[in-house]
Design goal:
This protein folds into 3 domains: 7-152, Sandwich (Jelly Rolls), CATH 2.60.120; 164-273, Immunoglobulins (Immunoglobulin-like), CATH 2.60.40.10; 281-397, Jelly Rolls (Sandwich). It contains 1 helix and 31 strands. The protein has one helix at 18-21; strands at residues 7-13, 29-32, 53-58, 65-75, 82-88, 92-95, 108-109, 112-115, 123-132, 140-152, 168-174, 177-183, 192-200, 215-216, 218-220, 223-225, 229-231, 238-241, 252-260, 265-267, 271-273, 281-285, 295-296, 302-308, 315-327, 336-338, 341-342, 354-360, 369-375, 383-386, 392-397. The strands form 6 sheets. Strands 1, 2, 4, 7, 8, 10, 13, 14, 17, 19, 20 and 21 form a 12-stranded antiparallel beta sheet that branches. Strand 19 (252-260) and strand 20 (265-267) form a beta hairpin. The longest helix is centred in the first third of the chain and has 4 residues, at 18-21.
Length: 401
């Protein structure tokens, strides 16, 4: 996990092949429950023919590895799908973490599963994904991207020219900005292409882990989103605006992910950092009655509420955080409303992909007490799926004198 151990590693990403996955259409891996093949409705659809098979080639001598993990970009699937698993090379079965789908929610998560090195092979690795239907209508989920991360032993042959490479994160505070950079011997002599900083702090659950106080930032199409920041030139400095980061129950932490031109990567140890003193407070508010699922299609309106203990005149700034799986709003002009005021949470193009928005909210649109979110799509199929943790508000306010 990020920040817990430093060192070099390499990621081997799965390459989609419709022939291997038995998918005549699409470009992502689909997984079905065992009873789909002969289901009179789902078994005749092209999605029902997907076999859940993935191949990942690893060009490594396993004796040179210290550890390995499987990383996924995972749409949690149809509500109530349960027992998601992967059989690795016929040697062992790994269970994917449950993120809320089994309980009926819409989810998207980024599981990282430690892999026993004995279960890998040098060359082509076969991953057979499976699931069960549970109490839903069709057990089904999608893997958009997958990688096996191989952590290197310190004496790995690929590291001969990198002995002694151990940069550290340096921070300084200027008002509501935390300046972050790397410090290390002759960083400019190494072929570093990018440094991405991730943070561990309490905030909106952007990784779908059912917790707010973990590491934040996630990949979309293998590219980091919602990270603290990134830089491409030494000393790889970024300014992190923490104005709307909620008050923290403990100190935060940062780690750096370093990309080299040859595909090698390096992960630093976590470095502690604290919010600067500030004359205001920022709190995160979560919905209190999220529907299972919070998903609108075919003109079925869905609602949820959020309780605020502040009046609009106490609010200095507000940000709405929403993560959706965007199946489209159809002909609905304003598919998402906050107290009858429209806010954009989709792509407007029915991308059938994740859309994450952080939108400034007019304090006059908020109320002391119950605030209502309304969701509406009239598409025939997926529509708009609001992913866990649902719509959340970050509120900045100053104590009354």
């Amino acid at each position: 996990m990020y920040g817990e151990q430093s060192g070099f590693y390499r990621e081997y990403w799965a390459v989609f092949d419709p022939a291997i996955s038995n998918q005549p259409d699409g470009n992502r891996w689909r997984v079905n429950d065992p009873a789909v093949s002969l289901h009179p409705k789902w078994g005749t659809r092209w999605e029902g023919k997907a076999n859940g098979l993935m191949l990942i080639s690893i060009d490594e001598d396993l004796f040179n590895l210290r550890a390995a993990q499987l990383y996924l970009e995972l749409w949690g699937g149809h509500p109530h799908t349960r027992n998601k698993q992967v059989i690795l090379n016929g040697k062992a079965t790994y269970t994917l973490p449950e993120a809320g789908t089994q309980a009926g929610h819409c989810t998207y998560s980024y599981p990282e599963l430690p892999i026993d090195l004995n279960h890998l092979v040098s060359g082509t690795n076969a991953l057979q994904f499976r699931c069960e239907r549970g109490s839903g209508f069709w057990g089904h989920y999608i893997i958009d991207q997958a990688a096996i991360r191989c952590d290197y032993q310190p004496d790995h042959p690929a590291l001969r020219d990198l002995q002694g490479f151990a940069p550290q994160i340096i921070t300084s505070i200027e008002e509501d900005q935390i300046r972050i950079s790397l410090q290390g011997a002759q960083l400019d002599k190494y072929p570093i292409t990018r440094v991405t900083y991730l943070g561990r702090y309490s905030d909106f659950d952007d990784r779908g882990e059912n917790r707010t106080d973990g590491w934040h930032g996630f990949t979309r199409g293998r590219v980091w989103q919602n990270a603290v920041g990134s830089a491409t030139q030494p000393p790889f400095e970024v300014n992190w605006d923490v104005t709307m980061i909620p008050d923290q129950p403990r100190d935060m932490a940062l780690c750096a992910l370093i990309d080299f031109a040859n595909g090698l990567k390096y992960r630093t140890f976590a470095a502690g950092v604290a919010l600067p003193p500030r004359p205001y407070t920022v709190r995160l508010y979560n919905p209190v009655d999220l529907p299972k699922p919070f998903w609108s299609r075919a003109g079925e309106q869905r609602e949820t509420t959020l309780e605020l203990d502040l009046a609009p005149d106490q609010i200095e700034a507000a940000v709405l955080c929403v993560k959706v799986w965007d199946g489209g709003e159809g002909s609905v002009a304003n598919p998402f409303l906050l107290n009858e005021h429209p806010y954009s949470v989709t792509s407007g193009r029915a991308t059938h992909d994740v859309v994450f928005t952080k939108t400034a909210v007019d304090p006059d649109h908020l109320k002391h007490g119950e605030n209502r979110f309304t969701l509406l799509s009239d598409t025939e199929h997926h529509g708009i799926e609001v992913l866990l943790p649902g719509p959340c508000l970050k509120i900045k306010s100053s104590p009354r004198e």
